[in-house]
Amino acid sequence: MRTLLWWVLFLSYAGLIFWLSDSPLPQGVPFIELPGADRAYHFFEYGLLAFLGLQAFSPATRRQSWKVLALCWLYGLSDEIHQLWVPGRSADVLDWLIDGLGVFTVGLLWMRWHWL
Length: 116
Prior knowledge:
globular; mainly alpha
């Protein structure tokens, strides 16, 4: 039952990422933009995806863990490509690299915790 919960969380979160990136950015909405906030969002967004993915897949080896992390990073790539067709959005290689930084930072911490 516990594993099912992680799978539901992982897949729901992946769906949320897709849904949010499928929405055009709101125009004319006043907000305070902090320098680097967009990059921080990408880092934490995909770091959380990696954590949920590792919990859902419950990899038994480091090799399996790396495969889960690669899957999460490729999901980030698919998200950037998907944004090419969303009005008001664009694909950004730097966003994808920051996604990977979040994925692999969380992944390395997770592996260190599980295989000290």
